[in-house]
UniProtKB/TrEMBL annotation:
The keyword Transport does not apply. The lineage of its organism: Bacteria, Pseudomonadati, Bacteroidota, Flavobacteriia, Flavobacteriales. Residues 1-21 form the signal peptide. It comes from Chryseobacterium taichungense. This is Pimeloyl-ACP methyl ester carboxylesterase. Keywords: Signal. One of its GO terms (molecular function) is monoacylglycerol lipase activity. GO terms for biological process: acylglycerol catabolic process. Residues 67-269 form the AB hydrolase-1 domain. It holds the Pfam family Abhydrolase_1.
Length: 330
């Protein structure tokens, strides 16, 4: 029996190694990775940096006169919105999908003060360039924090707000110890394809891996194999610091636009959980509670809970996510 177990373990390790060996090195701005739609760039100067911000502008064949902006999470970029964007476009929506500065195909500045207000202003600049006066805003994960700040700063620009498993529903400083940016950077440098996959299995997919999840792992894992990775890791450390130090949860009560929360209740994502005392860790990232709490704080908001779903409803259970989204915006 022990012999057969060893054989099985060897086979699993071999398969795992084959999967990771297929990951291709990706440079800091993903120049060798093709996005699902044409990529355009906003060139601008910010904090004494010459920057370019990538975005996709998906125009429908039969416009319904409405625009929707899709904001990605921290471990992602605009590409993972492909299916959502195609379905929205088919329904007549103009779909704008930015890559935030520090992410995806956008610039990776090494001397930049990341703030949600700055990211919101950068995002508004894309809408201004495209002459879009009002849009629906959908933010996932960290994109939910960007979307919240954008809505608070520019409410006149927002028709409706959708938050899909946003982080920042709680103040991580009240649980987790502070880490310096230098410490965060050293931690980011240790990331590998395997460590990223283990994280996603634990927090996103309940230890059940499917082939359709692989592209979103490959995009961040590919960075770790390229000489540019220190630049990516530095910006990742800066944005982790931004998330920890700039909570939005105290301002949900100030949101006045129609809002929908789409919450996968199995999600336990929480920034800095590994730095929190053992007795507090189980209390962090309780999305089945945080969704309800946030819905009560945003006056008139709606909550759609998707049971037994993790951090990525639009990847894990797309149809349920789409039905919730389209019912709210149609």
């Amino acid at each position: 029996m022990k012999y057969f177990k060893n054989i099985v373990n060897v086979m699993l390790l071999t398969i795992s190694g084959m999967l990771f060996s297929q990951v291709k090195p990706l440079d800091a701005e993903l120049t060798n990775y093709q996005y699902p739609f044409e990529v355009q760039f906003l060139n601008f100067k910010s904090q004494n940096n010459d920057l370019k911000m990538a975005y996709m502008d998906v125009k429908p064949e039969k416009p319904n006169g409405k625009a929707i902006m899709l904001l990605h999470g921290k471990n992602f970029n605009g590409a993972y919105w492909e299916r959502t964007a195609r379905d929205l476009s088919a329904k007549g929506f103009r779909v704008i999908i930015p890559d935030q500065i520090g992410f995806g195909k956008s610039s990776k500045p090494q001397h930049y003060q990341f703030s949600f207000s700055q990211l919101a202003e950068n995002t508004k600049a894309i809408l201004d360039k495209l002459n879009i006066d009002k849009t629906i805003v959908l933010g996932h994960s960290m994109g939910g924090m960007v979307a919240t700040r954008f809505t608070l700063l520019y409410p006149e620009k927002v028709e409706k707000l959708i938050l899909e498993n946003p982080i920042g529903l709680e103040d991580y400083k009240t649980f987790a110890a502070y880490q310096t940016i230098d410490q965060a950077y050293q931690s980011e440098l240790k990331n590998t394809a395997e460590s990223y996959k283990n994280y996603q299995l634990k927090f996103y997919y309940d230890n059940k891996w499917k082939s359709e999840y692989q592209p979103w792992l490959d995009l961040i894992a590919g960075w770790t194999l390229h000489p540019d990775y220190p630049k990516v890791a530095w910006d990742a450390a800066l944005t982790s610091d931004m998330i920890y130090n700039q909570p939005v949860c105290y301002e949900f009560k100030n949101i006045k636009v129609p809002t929908l929360l789409i919450i996968g209740t199995r999600d336990r994502t929480a920034i800095g959980k590994d730095r929190a005392p053992k007795e507090l860790q189980p209390k962090m990232g309780q999305y089945q509670l945080l969704g309800k709490k946030t819905q009560q704080e945003i006056k008139g908001s709606q909550l759609i809970e998707i049971e037994n779903v993790g951090h990525l409803p639009h990847i894990e259970v797309y149809d349920k996510f789409w039905n919730a989204l389209y019912d709210f915006i149609k």
